Amino acid sequence: MSAIDAVVFDVGRVLVQWDMRSLFAKLIDDPERLDWFCSTVVTEEWHFRHDAGCDLAEMVAERKAQFPGHDDLLDAYATRFLETIPGNVPGSHEIVRELARRHVPLFAITNFASSFWQEFRATEPLFDLFGDIVVSGDEKLVKPDPHIFNLAASRFGHEPAAMLFIDDNAANIASARALGWQVHHFQSAEALRADLESRQLLG
Questions:
Q1: Same structural domain for residues 42 and 102?
Q2: Domain range for 170
Q3: Which runs of consecutive H residues, i.e. helices, occur in 6-156?
Q4: Mean pLDDT of 167-176
Q5: Mean pLDDT of 146-174
Q6: Judging by DSSP bridges, how do beta strands 163-167 and 106-110 pair with one another?
Q7: How far apart are CA 150 and CA 147, in angstroms?
Q8: 3-state class of 117 per DSSP?
């Protein structure tokens, strides 16, 4: 393992929990209908289009036309997105703070819709510790597209081989690795801590 000059985090499911059902379970009492809605109407694949920069109003209007009778639920997706983030990933914020105390440069690359990110970012002071954050919805680029990693490397000012990229998504990890980044496929804060200690970034 080469020396690490900077650590680059994903956000969703690495630093914060994310689950669409956290919102819609409050609005749909019937478990079967909840399963159907989250697997057919407001799916992660559909949401990914918003992460990529598609217009929210257009997406919601299109979905309302496709699935009549669900307007209130689709409006909730647009206006209550923070409720899909039920809390922090246990242990991850502590790792970020420890790295910051050790003066390790911190960055992030996140697939996150621009408007939703602005709303969420205002609630989370942890990101004050990050030197820069590349947000897919702002850039109209999404992981695992290599272009978002190249953009991030140019913005962050470190060579890919000198940065450790942490993500829970295997495709994102594979894309970064192919571009020369050092990588950690996130499974838990405990496993991440062990990796960082082995790299002498924590200890």
A1: no
A2: 6-17+87-198
A3: 21-24, 31-40, 44-51, 56-66, 71-79, 92-101, 114-121, 136-139, 146-156
A4: 98
A5: 98
A6: unpaired
A7: 5
A8: helix
| Interatomic CA distance for residues 164 and 161, integer angstroms | 8
φ, ψ at 110 (rounded to 5°): -130, 135
Residue pLDDT, tens place only, 98-115? 999 999 999 999 999 999
Regarding whether 10 and 34 lie in a shared domain, the answer is no
Give me the helix-helix angle, 44-51 and 56-66, nearest 10°.
Answer: 150
Same-domain pairing of 74 and 121: no
Percent of the chain with pLDDT over 90: 99
Yes or no: say if 57 and 88 are a contact pair by the CB < 8 Å rule: no
DSSP-based helix, strand, coil % in the chain, nearest 5:
50, 10, 35
Half-sphere exposure of 163 (CA within 13 A, CB side): 29
Outline where DSSP puts E strands in 106-202.
Answer: 106-110, 132-135, 163-167, 182-185
Q: Judge whether 1 lies within some domain.
A: no
Q: Say if residue 186 is exposed, middle or buried (CB neighbours under 10 Å; 0-12, 13-18, 19+).
A: buried
Beta-carbon contacts of residue 102 (< 8 Å; ≥ 6 apart): 201, 202
Q: Which of helix, strand or coil describes residue 200?
A: coil
Task: Quickly tell me which residue has 């924590």 as its tokens.
Answer: 202
